[in-house]
């Protein structure tokens, strides 16, 4: 009950952030040199259409009332209309968003599969050979471009070895799962170095703390001490790190989708940019921001669930 | 004669340093009988906590045992393979720490922390383990244990947490509890309650106690026999009463004097000046000599051997002969103060 | 990392000897500086290292393998020399990468200084703006801004500045909140010096270190962003060589001519490694 109340409170606290996001996205279109209406309609628009849109958008009215109109549309789930696709932006998003969410989930799963065992190993065998190798990984991995990594994975595991599909997303669930392996691993490989670093540091911190000595003094198995006591505590701090980086990497899905030809919102955004489809770019930028907000919310909620010390009130 | 429950012979503990090593425990020998309460006192840095931790194989990194023998019921366990050694040690002994807040896992319910050993080690079922934990909580004086079982460490008071720690220590059914300054973090009233719990365990459950403390008052409330440590060595040992009334080592003597005694208003004649020696360097002679008002050249040159100093007493001082003078000096001083 | 902190209060302090022996330089810092120096030197000396023109097309010599006569690293689909494009591309990417970190660094640090020092409504307003910006994934907002402002290096600088300053602002603000309570800051305040002088002369030097440490890894992230923009076709407009564009152009030949994408990718990885080593070295120095 207390927990639900906490979630509710966090949701309410999101309102100012969401307003801010809408504000930035609203002004994005004003950055474009020239007449927004003309830009929105694209190069083939007739003058009548442009002037029609001008009055429809309220471009002759003050900025504030334009923003209120924009916000009103957003609240109704109206992200604008794509003249290039002759479709509402909301529809474009609805089609492509599941792919991006699939990608984010598989990226997170692979990240955890890679980062957690390595960090635990490094921390448990501190200053050993494995630890030194694992510690070098973040330094090398920091400058690894996700798209290049993706291309290399395609080359090796897709084309040379033929283990996984190199592009697309397939139609069935099995296809989805197979198609998500390489993109997910790409995301994981760029995300896990940072997570390994922080998880290792907090594991070492935790392993030298008194309650681990207490646990050891009980004479239970080392595995039980490491997994039951240490990992849980280390996870508490690492969830936040994972969340922050996942938010950052939400941006990389855009590149990964491009490399693997996945029809997600990132791919849609790039195509819209290349097609100079402003309303779609604007709408998807907003959707990306909302995804970050949701990831942050999930991080806080998970953190609160893992750590009883978080004040829920 | 039955061998003591626990005996330690010539224990050495080192802490590797960037340049050299710190010889923190330098040949400690001690023994604890079944259901006996023994105190280990000394100032901080004397190696008493490390000695205690070494006994359970829980030395903090990078400290390690260099040599020494541990006997349980007269059997040398030092040579056992690591797994069996750990098993043997943790089956016999368990530990209570100074800071109950850090000693408890912050994200685990306190009850589950007590129930863990019965569940994972003694092979009890979940409900049995929980029942055991609730019983233990009641035994250490926690009211309403069923409700408190569900709480997290940060939701309990310091005294309550230390009781939980004692319950955890009891959960492995040990014959000896090692307690490392268990009451230092608590205020005086709570301190007395927690010490009461430990005393009662000894009387009713026949659980022995090896108590480490820098506070003679705490030790004298709980223990019947004492070991006094200085600079990594035991300098004197004996029955509590003998040791407190007639110390046979000047360090013990000065330690006693640094306990304020409101009844006698004794001046701090021998308030210890100077610092303990740097144990990362070799110590020649008696380690207390630089601070000892009675030290002579021989003290500074050769290390004193522990010698019997009365029934059941051992002292590592070559100037025991001056012992009467120490007492006399204090009395004089006390008179002149009045 | 001394043994003392691990062991706890029961052990005398470690002897201080040997601290100075380790000195000012540490291996990651030296390795990173040397590597980065080599890369910068190669970029600067591009005309000396290759006689080829990075832009000149020669369709007759397209898609030559590395080691072909006159083309050490081969040629791309338009017959341009890969080595020349790599070297001249380094000039573009490194220049943009480094410059695009400077203005967010300055703006973010100053805003953070102001927010932390004045607190109150100033801090609240700045805090709200920061919250808004960090709600967007870095890359998405940069891409959207570059798109809105049109292609070109100016757009890239502006976009990265508009998004990147918030990180510096948060770091410096946090440091100021701590420094503000310390004696030297109190003393400076009590002395009646003008506020700007306290901020710039007394406070800034004490709080800027963390921002500098961060800026090292930020250069890597910025470089990645620029290369990514190039890969997506939103970067430095063609025919100017750029590593991201080179990787993108090679992707369609990946099965037969794998090296076209691989070589510039490795260049990014190695540059990133050099900068990451420098960042690591500075962190290590700062923590000492």
From TrEMBL, chain A:
Query: Which Gene3D superfamilies did the record assign?
Result: MetI-like (1.10.3720.10)
Where is it chiefly localized? membrane
One GO location term (cellular component):
plasma membrane
GO BP terms, alphabetized: transmembrane transport
Matching InterPro entries, A to Z? Answer: BPD_transp_1_N, MetI-like, MetI-like_sf
Domain ABC transmembrane type-1 positions: 97-299
Concerning SUPFAM superfamilies, the annotation shows:
MetI-like
The protein's UniProt keywords, in alphabetical order, are:
Cell membrane, Membrane, Transmembrane, Transmembrane helix, Transport
Presence of the UniProt keyword Nuclease in the record: no
Location in the cell: Cell membrane
Kindly give the membrane topology term recorded for this protein: Multi-pass membrane protein
Residue stretches spanning the membrane: 12-32, 99-124, 136-157, 177-196, 278-298
The family database entries (PANTHER family) matched by this protein are listed as: DIPEPTIDE TRANSPORT SYSTEM PERMEASE PROTEIN DPPB-RELATED
Instruction: Give the protein's recorded name.
Output: ABC transporter permease
Q: Which organism is it from?
A: Planotetraspora thailandica
Automatic annotation (TrEMBL), chain B:
Keyword set for this entry? ATP-binding, Cell membrane, Membrane, Nucleotide-binding, Transport
Membrane topology field: Peripheral membrane protein
Which PROSITE patterns does the entry mention? ABC_TRANSPORTER_1, ABC_TRANSPORTER_2
Q: Which residues form the ABC transporter domain?
A: 6-256
Localisation: Cell membrane
Q: What is its main location?
A: membrane
Q: Quote a single Gene Ontology cellular component term.
A: plasma membrane
Looking up Pfam families in the UniProt record yields: ABC_tran, oligo_HPY
An annotated Gene Ontology molecular function:
ATP binding
- State the InterPro entries in the record: AAA+_ATPase (IPR003593), ABC_Ni/Peptide_Import (IPR050388), ABC_transporter-like_ATP-bd (IPR003439), ABC_transporter-like_CS (IPR017871), Oligopep_ABC_C (IPR013563), P-loop_NTPase (IPR027417)
Give GO terms for biological process.
peptide transport
Report the family membership: Belongs to the ABC transporter superfamily.
Name of this chain's protein: ABC transporter ATP-binding protein
- According to its UniProt entry, this protein's organism is Planotetraspora thailandica
Automatic annotation (TrEMBL), chain C:
Please report the record's description of how this protein sits within the membrane.
Multi-pass membrane protein
Q: Where in the cell is it found?
A: Cell membrane
Q: Which Gene3D superfamilies match?
A: MetI-like
CDD domains the record matches: TM_PBP2
Q: Which PROSITE patterns match?
A: ABC_TM1
- Locate the coiled-coil region(s) and give their ranges: none
| A GO cellular-component term linked to this record | plasma membrane
The protein's matches in InterPro entries, at most eight in alphabetical order, are given as: BP-dependent_transpt_permease, MetI-like, MetI-like_sf, OppC_N
Query: Does this UniProt record's set of keywords contain Cell division?
Result: no
Highest taxon listed in the record's lineage:
Bacteria
Q: Which GO terms describe its biological process?
A: transmembrane transport
- One matching Pfam family, short form? OppC_N
Give me the segments passing through the membrane. 29-49, 96-117, 129-149, 155-172, 207-234, 258-279
- Which residue ranges does the record assign to the ABC transmembrane type-1 domain? 90-279
Alphabetized UniProt keyword annotations: Cell membrane, Membrane, Transmembrane, Transmembrane helix, Transport
| Similarity comment: family membership | Belongs to the binding-protein-dependent transport system permease family.
Q: What name does the UniProt record give this protein?
A: Nickel ABC transporter permease
Q: Which organism is it from?
A: Planotetraspora thailandica
What taxonomic classification does the UniProt entry list for its organism? Bacteria, Bacillati, Actinomycetota, Actinomycetes, Streptosporangiales
């Amino acid at each position: 009950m207390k927990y639900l109340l906490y979630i509710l409170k966090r949701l309410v606290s999101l309102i100012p952030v969401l307003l801010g996001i809408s504000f930035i996205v609203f002004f994005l279109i004003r950055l474009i040199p020239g007449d927004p209406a003309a830009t929105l309609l694209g190069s083939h628009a007739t003058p009548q259409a442009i002037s029609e849109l001008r009055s429809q958008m309220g471009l002759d009215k003050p900025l504030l009332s334009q923003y209120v109109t924009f916000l009103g549309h957003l609240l109704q789930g109206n992200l604008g209309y794509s003249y290039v696709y002759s479709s509402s932006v909301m529809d474009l998003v609805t089609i492509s968003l599941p792919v991006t969410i699939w990608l984010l989930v598989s990226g997170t799963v692979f990240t955890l599969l890679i980062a957690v065992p390595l960090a635990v190993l490094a921390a448990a065998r501190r200053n050993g050979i494995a630890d030194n190798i694992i510690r070098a990984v973040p330094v090398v991995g920091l400058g690894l471009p996700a798209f290049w990594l993706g291309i290399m994975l395609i080359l090796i595991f897709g084309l040379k070895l033929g283990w996984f599909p190199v592009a697309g997303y397939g139609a069935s669930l099995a296809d989805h799962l197979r198609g998500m392996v390489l993109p997910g691993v790409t995301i994981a490989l760029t995300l896990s170095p940072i997570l390994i670093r922080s998880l290792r540091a907090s594991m070492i911190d935790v392993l030298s703390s008194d309650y681990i000595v207490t646990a050891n003094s009980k004479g239970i198995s080392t595995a039980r001490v490491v997994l039951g006591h240490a990992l849980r505590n280390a996870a508490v701090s690492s969830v936040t790190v994972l969340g922050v980086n996942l938010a950052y990497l939400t941006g990389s899905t855009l590149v990964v989708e491009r490399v693997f030809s996945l029809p997600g919102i990132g791919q849609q955004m790039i195509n819209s940019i290349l097609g100079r489809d402003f309303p779609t770019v604007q709408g998807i930028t907003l959707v990306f921001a909302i995804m970050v907000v949701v990831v942050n919310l999930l991080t806080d909620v998970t953190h609160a669930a893992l750590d009883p010390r978080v004040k829920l009130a | 004669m039955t061998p003591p429950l626990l005996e330690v012979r010539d224990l050495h503990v080192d802490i590797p340093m960037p340049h050299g090593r710190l010889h923190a425990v330098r040949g400690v020998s001690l023994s604890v009988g079944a259901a006996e309460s023994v105190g280990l006192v000394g100032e901080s840095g004397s190696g008493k906590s490390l000695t205690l931790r070494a006994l359970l194989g829980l030395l903090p990194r990078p400290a390690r045992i260099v040599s020494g023998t541990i006997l349980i019921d007269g059997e040398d366990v030092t040579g056992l393979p690591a797994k069996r050694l750990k098993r043997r040690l943790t089956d016999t002994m368990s530990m209570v720490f100074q800071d109950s807040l850090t000693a408890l896992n912050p994200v685990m319910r306190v009850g589950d922390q007590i129930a863990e050993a019965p569940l994972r080690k003694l092979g009890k079922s979940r409900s049995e383990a929980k029942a055991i934990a609730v019983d233990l909580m009641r035994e250490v004086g926690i009211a309403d244990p069923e409700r408190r079982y569900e709480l997290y460490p940060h939701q309990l008071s310091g005294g309550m947490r230390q009781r939980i720690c004692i319950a955890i220590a009891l959960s492995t059914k040990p014959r000896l509890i090692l307690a490392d300054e268990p009451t230092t973090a608590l205020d005086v009233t709570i301190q007395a309650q927690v010490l009461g719990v430990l005393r009662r365990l000894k009387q009713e459950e026949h659980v022995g106690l090896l108590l480490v403390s820098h506070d003679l008052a705490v030790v004298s409330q709980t223990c019947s026999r004492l070991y006094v440590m200085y600079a990594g060595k035991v300098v004197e040992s004996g029955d509590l009463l003998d040791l407190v009334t007639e110390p046979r080592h000047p360090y013990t003597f000065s330690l006693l004097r640094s306990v304020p005694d409101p009844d006698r208003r004794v001046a701090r004649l021998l308030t210890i000046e100077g610092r303990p020696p740097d144990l990362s360097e070799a110590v020649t002679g008696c380690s207390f000599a630089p601070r000892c008002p009675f030290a002579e050249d021989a003290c500074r040159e050769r290390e004193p051997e522990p010698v019997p100093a009365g029934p059941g007493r051992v002292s590592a001082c070559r100037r025991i002969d001056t012992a009467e003078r120490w007492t006399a000096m204090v009395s004089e001083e006390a008179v002149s103060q009045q | 990392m001394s043994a003392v902190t691990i062991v706890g209060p029961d052990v005398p302090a470690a002897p201080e000897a040997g601290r100075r022996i380790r000195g000012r330089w540490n291996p990651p810092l030296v390795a990173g500086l040397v590597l980065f120096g080599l890369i910068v030197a190669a970029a600067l000396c591009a005309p000396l290292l290759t006689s080829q023109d990075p832009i000149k097309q020669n369709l007759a010599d397209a898609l030559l393998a590395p080691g072909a006569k006159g083309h050490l690293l081969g040629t791309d689909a338009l017959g341009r020399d890969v080595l020349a494009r790599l070297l001249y591309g380094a000039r573009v990417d490194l220049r943009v990468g480094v410059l695009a970190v400077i203005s967010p660094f300055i703006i973010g640090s100053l805003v953070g200084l102001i927010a932390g020092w004045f607190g109150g409504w100033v801090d609240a307003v700045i805090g709200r703006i920061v919250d808004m910006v960090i709600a967007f994934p870095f890359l998405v907002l940069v891409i959207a801004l570059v798109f809105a402002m049109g292609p070109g290096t100016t757009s890239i600088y502006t976009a990265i500045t508009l998004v990147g300053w918030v990180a510096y602002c948060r770091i410096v603000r946090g440091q100021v909140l701590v420094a503000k309570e310390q004696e030297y800051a109190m003393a400076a305040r009590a002395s009646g010096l003008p506020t700007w002088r306290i901020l710039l002369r007394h406070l800034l030097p004490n709080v800027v270190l963390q921002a500098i440490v961060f800026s090292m890894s930020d250069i890597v992230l910025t470089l990645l962003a620029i290369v990514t923009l190039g890969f997506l076709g939103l970067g430095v407009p063609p025919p100017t060589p750029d590593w991201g564009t080179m990787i993108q152009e090679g992707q369609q030949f990946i099965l037969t001519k794998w090296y076209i994408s691989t070589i510039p990718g490795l260049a990014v990885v190695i540059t990133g490694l050099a900068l990451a080593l420098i960042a690591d070295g500075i962190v290590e120095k700062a923590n000492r």
